Structures are given as structure tokens and as C-alpha cells.
Amino acid sequence: MRFTLRQLEYFIAAGETGSITHASERINISQPSISTAISQLEQELDTQLFIRHHAQGLSLTPAGRIMLMEAKRLVEQAESLYAAASEASEEVRGQLNVGCLTTLAPMVLPELSISFMSAFPKASIRPHADHQEMLLNGLHRAMIDVAITYDLQIPADIEFTPLVNLPVHAIVGESHPLARHSAVTLSELAELPLILLDLPLSAEYFTALFMKEGLSPNIAFRFSQPDIIRTMVANGYGYSLANVTPRSDTALDGRKVVRVRLSGENRPMTIGFATLKQLKKSRLLAAFATHAKSFISDAYIPGMVAPAMGQKKR
């Protein structure tokens, strides 16, 4: 064989994203390197893998679709050699695909990943961020090995290990009348304009808080991007609800937001890590699980104010 696993990895990235540009961003490799690798692969296999659309990306040919499935299988088999070597040598090494919930990823994932790779220099982490449904799907399809996420509708075949609880709170702009309150109730919020985090399962969680109290929220806006919500809140468009507690109280435009404790018995979100029950836990995955347990707790959460410190008392 005169093609390499690296060429296959570049081909897989392009095939899954449908774009040389997006593949480059995904695997942090230059666009010319990816294009060259694909051309060399096509020449070696004597077949066309992609149809190139000017300014509109790539689409796989029928042969390319078959090749994509086989290439992924081959790369997975190659990676399993590292896992087998790690098990045999009792050394933690290899690549771990770690998924993380979109709302947690900017705070938790970078610091946790760097800390783990510092502790185990021969291990590497490939990070992924998505909403809950896609993370669970990724575990089922073996696209990710572990997910850092919330205990939201975890199916029976997924093992969830809890790490820390995050109470729900309201977020308002610093000039909002509620910003001076130590706590607020759902009934006080119900009539006010809510900027809802519109992600699968997350939106249902927040609206269910009101339904439990026999209330209906006044949803003024829906966004799936937390940074947009924080900036809208900081500019006075309404309030939002959240469980994450970023260390910074500044929105992207420089304006401030204020966290206000939500009174009452409201279900918190529990951060934990999820794995597929039927998946045999490698030494690498076991080491990551142990590291996550020691790194994320009530005393410390990467990128966040710990719950005990972040909650205002009445």
C-alpha cells in the first residue's frame, strides 16, 4: 500500500464535513495539505472520491461513499493497536474522542483536556462539542468515547457518572431592576421577556420549571448560542435562565450580566461523564474517568465559579 493513515484521516474529515475549509478547521491542518492528500489518495486508488463544486464544497462519489466507510473502519482498527499496546504495557497512551455539551464546552473542555494530557503525555484528546441529542448519538455510534454533559434524558444503555450539581439561576443585565435582588421566584419572572436557550432537551428543561409551578414563561427570543443570549441580556432585551456560572460576568460586547439565585425547589443540572455501558473501558478511558472525578467537584469546576461560592444567600 502506498497511502498512509494520515491521508485517510484527511479524507475522512473532508468526507464528513463536505468541505476542504471545514475539514481544515476540524483537524487543524492546512487546506493545501488536505487537498494534496486527497489527490494522492485518488491517484493511488485510481478512482474519483469527490465531485468538486466551485465555491460550494465537495460531495462524495458513489465510490467515495464506500471508501469513507472503509477508511473509518481502517483508522479505527489502527487506533485500536495503540489501545492494545497501552493495555499490554500498562501505559496510558492513545487518542480519546471527548464530547462536551455546547454550553459547558468553552469553560470545561479546554482546561480539563490540557490537564489530562499534561498528566499523561502520551495521550491526546480530540474535542467535540454539540447538544445533548448529538452527544448521545455520538456515543451510540462510537464517534466519541466519552461525553462531559448533564443528566438530561440519559438512556438505559448509557452509564452516567455524576460529578457536581449546578443550580439554576436567572441572568439579567446590570441595570435590570432584578439585578439588585438576592433571589427571585419563577412567578416574578413569568411575565418578563425570557431569552430561551433553544437547544434540544435544554429548552424543555427550562420551560418545565415553569410548568411545575403552573406557570407559562413569556418567551421573547430563542437562541441556540449562549454568547448571543448573554449579550442580549446584557443589553436589556430580557432575562435568561442558566445553570453554568462562568467566572466572567462580561458579555462579548463588554457589558455586564448579573446572576440572581432562583428561589424554590428547582431541579439542578448535574455535570458528569457518560459512556456506553457495553463498551469495554480501555486503560485510557479509565484514566480519563479518574482524572475527571478528581478535577471537577463542588470545590472546583474548570472555567466556572464553584456552586458553593457562586450562590448568593438570602
What is the 3D form?
A: globular
The biggest beta sheet is recorded as: 5 strands, mixed
* Distance between the first and last residues' Cα: 69 Å
Q: What portion of residues is helical?
A: 40-55%
How much strand content do the residues show? 15-25%
Gyration radius (Cα, Å) is 23 Å
Low-pLDDT segments: 308-314
What average pLDDT do the residues reach?
90
Oligomer: single chain
**Major β-sheet strand ordering:** 4-3-5-13-6
Topology, number of strands = 13
Count of individual helical segments: 11
> Helix and strand string, N-terminal first?
HHHEEHEHEHEEEEHEHEHEEEHH
Coarse structural class = alpha/beta
Would you give an account of this structure?
By secondary structure, this protein is α/β, with parallel strands linked by helices. The chain is built from eleven helices and 13 strands. The chain has helices spanning about 5-15, 20-25, 30-45, 60-90, 105-120, 130-140, 185-190, 200-210, 225-235, 285-295, 305-310, and strands spanning about 50-55, 55-60, 95-100, 125-130, 145-150, 160-165, 170-175, 185, 195, 220-225, 240, 255-260, 270-275.
Quickly list its features.
single chain; 314 residues; alpha/beta; 5-stranded mixed β-sheet; 4-stranded mixed β-sheet; 11 helices
Structure described in brief:
With 314 residues, the chain is α/β, with parallel strands linked by helices.
Write the layout of secondary structure elements.
Blueprint: H1 5-17, H2 20-27, H3 31-45, E1 50-53, E2 57-60, H4 62-89, E3 94-101, H5 105-119, E4 123-130, H6 132-140, E5 146-150, E6 158-166, E7 169-173, E8 183-184, H7 186-189, E9 193-197, H8 202-212, E10 218-223, H9 226-234, E11 240-242, E12 257-262, E13 269-276, H10 283-295, H11 307-310
Parallel strand pairs: 3-4, 3-5, 8-12, 9-10
Antiparallel strand pairs: 1-2, 5-13, 6-13, 7-11, 7-12
